[in-house]
């Protein structure tokens, strides 16, 4: 939204910047006050967490959301690279196919963070005349690249596992393999918790998907533990079978990720989004009905448009005032909403006359 309200204690930029609370006592002013009272510890906590909003609340500012997404991507990348590096060393000394499969997938997952970071950076660029909606769609396109990398890693793992089943390899240093698998599980779960939490706060399907992907990585690391136990119990092909299970699990994860990516690219929204917009708009004083509502994701922000009915005898100024109130209410109460266009229809006794859209009716296709 590109309006600015002066004298109200807050401004609305591209998204919804706050200088006041949401009724829960956690507004921007409160956040600054508590930081001052808390001293260094509060400032450190403020720096490490995505600012003054509660963990379960959506971040309304687009700039703040992008910053939180970039920070989560970098922290996750560091964690995954450290885990994968340690696992690579143990793969080299043990020859474990199961651990190799887990490590390759962890490395592939780390690599997919790079296009996500680029997409977040692109999304912060200002709209242009050629791209008037901005560049946030780059985030959805990065999801396609991530899916391709996941597919390639799954293919490599399955091929290596089948080869090991046909030609069994002698495994050594099984204790180290077990330790690496447990470290991989713990490291990936830590990354998953952080990315999912931040992804939900900023409305980023790509970041949430990356978080679930990391959680699945942790589970596959635990599967490697099963392979080690099988080898210890005298079944040498257990390690290769575990690698094959990991590869198939990755294919299953990929299918779920592709569904989310496809929905976003096709302008699909989550269940309840349109209903939430209708409900909020309908409760505004002066609104006598809600017509067409549309919404779509552009990266991790929602764009929407809504038709509302007002008294046909109202002045232009009064109609604009009601539209402004609807706009403001929607920005506050619909999670991840970055911008909304409110169209006003004149209504008489609650009914919009047919002649109100007489000029454009033939363009509506029935």
UniProtKB/TrEMBL annotation:
<feature type="domain" description="Cation efflux protein transmembrane">
    <location>
        <begin position="74"/>
        <end position="265"/>
    </location>
</feature>
<feature type="domain" description="Cation efflux protein cytoplasmic">
    <location>
        <begin position="270"/>
        <end position="346"/>
    </location>
</feature>
<dbReference type="Pfam" id="PF16916">
    <property type="entry name" value="ZT_dimer"/>
</dbReference>
<dbReference type="GO" id="GO:0015086">
    <property type="term" value="F:cadmium ion transmembrane transporter activity"/>
</dbReference>
<feature type="compositionally biased region" description="Basic and acidic residues">
    <location>
        <begin position="1"/>
        <end position="25"/>
    </location>
</feature>
<dbReference type="InterPro" id="IPR027470">
    <property type="entry name" value="Cation_efflux_CTD"/>
</dbReference>
<feature type="transmembrane region" description="Helical">
    <location>
        <begin position="174"/>
        <end position="196"/>
    </location>
</feature>
<feature type="transmembrane region" description="Helical">
    <location>
        <begin position="241"/>
        <end position="262"/>
    </location>
</feature>
<dbReference type="InterPro" id="IPR058533">
    <property type="entry name" value="Cation_efflux_TM"/>
</dbReference>
<dbReference type="GO" id="GO:0005886">
    <property type="term" value="C:plasma membrane"/>
</dbReference>
<dbReference type="GO" id="GO:0006882">
    <property type="term" value="P:intracellular zinc ion homeostasis"/>
</dbReference>
<keyword id="KW-0812">Transmembrane</keyword>
<feature type="transmembrane region" description="Helical">
    <location>
        <begin position="107"/>
        <end position="123"/>
    </location>
</feature>
<keyword id="KW-0472">Membrane</keyword>
<keyword id="KW-1133">Transmembrane helix</keyword>
<dbReference type="GO" id="GO:0015093">
    <property type="term" value="F:ferrous iron transmembrane transporter activity"/>
</dbReference>
<dbReference type="InterPro" id="IPR002524">
    <property type="entry name" value="Cation_efflux"/>
</dbReference>
<dbReference type="InterPro" id="IPR036837">
    <property type="entry name" value="Cation_efflux_CTD_sf"/>
</dbReference>
<feature type="transmembrane region" description="Helical">
    <location>
        <begin position="74"/>
        <end position="101"/>
    </location>
</feature>
<dbReference type="GO" id="GO:0015341">
    <property type="term" value="F:zinc efflux antiporter activity"/>
</dbReference>
<comment type="similarity">
    <text>Belongs to the cation diffusion facilitator (CDF) transporter (TC 2.A.4) family.</text>
</comment>
<keyword id="KW-0813">Transport</keyword>
<protein>
    <submittedName>
        <fullName>Cation diffusion facilitator family transporter</fullName>
    </submittedName>
</protein>
<dbReference type="InterPro" id="IPR027469">
    <property type="entry name" value="Cation_efflux_TMD_sf"/>
</dbReference>
<dbReference type="InterPro" id="IPR050291">
    <property type="entry name" value="CDF_Transporter"/>
</dbReference>
<feature type="transmembrane region" description="Helical">
    <location>
        <begin position="216"/>
        <end position="235"/>
    </location>
</feature>
<feature type="region of interest" description="Disordered">
    <location>
        <begin position="1"/>
        <end position="39"/>
    </location>
</feature>
<dbReference type="Pfam" id="PF01545">
    <property type="entry name" value="Cation_efflux"/>
</dbReference>
<feature type="compositionally biased region" description="Gly residues">
    <location>
        <begin position="26"/>
        <end position="39"/>
    </location>
</feature>
<feature type="transmembrane region" description="Helical">
    <location>
        <begin position="144"/>
        <end position="162"/>
    </location>
</feature>
